[in-house]
Amino acid sequence: MSIFCIGQSAYDITVPIDRPLIENQKYRVETFKECGGGPALNAACLCAMWGAKTQLVSRIGKDKYGNKLKALLREYGVGTDYLIPDEEIDTPYSLIVSRAENASRTIFNFPGVKADIQYTVPKEKADVILSDGHEPDITLKILKENTNAVSVADAGTLREGTFRVAQKVDYLVCSEDFAKQYTGKTINLKDWKACQEIFTQIEAVNQKTAVVTLGERGLLYRNENGEICHLPACQVQAVDTSGAGDIFHGAFAYGLYKNLSLLENLKQSSVTSALSVQKIGSQAAIPSLEEVIRARIGNKF
Predict the structure, then answer these.
(1) DSSP 51
(2) In Å, how far from its chain's centre is CA 26?
(3) In sequence order, what DSSP letters do the residues of 179-222 get, joined into one string?
(4) Tell me, what's the pLDDT at 255?
(5) Domains of the chain with CATH codes
(6) Considering 118, 172, 184, 257, which has the largest number of Cβ atoms within 10 A of its Cβ?
(7) What is the DSSP code (8-state) at residue 103?
(8) DSSP code of 54?
(9) How far apart, in whole angstroms, are the C-alpha atoms of residue 10 and residue 109?
(10) pTM of the model
(11) Alpha-helix residue ranges (DSSP H) falling in 62-103
(12) What CA–CA distance (Å, rounded) separates 220 from 56?
């Protein structure tokens, strides 16, 4: 069995600050955190770290950041047999300003210029496919050749590529931003009728299973009895929310790999994401499966 994580990899440089950014000011940086980043890479690292056979389908260049990411993937045991052969690309990287007071982050992402690539779909079959929508054409090719795989879309924002992928997967796990951009409506948990209407609109995208994540407010899902439900988030003191969504999706893909029920999977993924925001960095904040199990036992979540 194997998990394919398709999409963006990046190298993250996170700078923690203790005050708001102000224009025309100089900030002296004495500490910063460097680590892997990008939705697909973060998810792949989690799945491999937790013991699943995992392949990353992503673009990583031959430059300094690319070499660091490839070394990291080897360390985690993530397969790189099916990386997208765009060797001329400048490896994507992000500069992230993280504010410890409220865990907010401002991200400056440098995605690199992608070349048109003739990608050969791997002969190896995937059991679970997770795509962040950054490589829609390649994702759709792999989905077509893996009809028995369970597929998930990590839909962070409503982009054309992400929407194309979202329509074809078994599980659409989208952010509140995606839901707002698609429906034009803001989710207010105090207006439950409106929440149900928004959720039903999101479900219509793929006609299968949808989940809408709401950050510190939890998430929306439909239970086995057909009822739309709200699952509260774990209450923790967040330090840096970078990569929290990526880590949630990685844990969710792992849960599918382990055949967890939807609710059990959502609970485990929520705890995993909550643990991650208590550390600086994205990939560097991925908790071990043992940490997640201990946290769940302690909090009875």
Answers:
(1) T
(2) 33
(3) HHHHHS----TT-HHHHHHHHHHHHHHHTSEEEEE-GGG-EEEE
(4) 98
(5) 3-19+31-299 (3.40.1190.20)
(6) 172
(7) T
(8) E
(9) 9
(10) 0.94
(11) 64-76
(12) 28
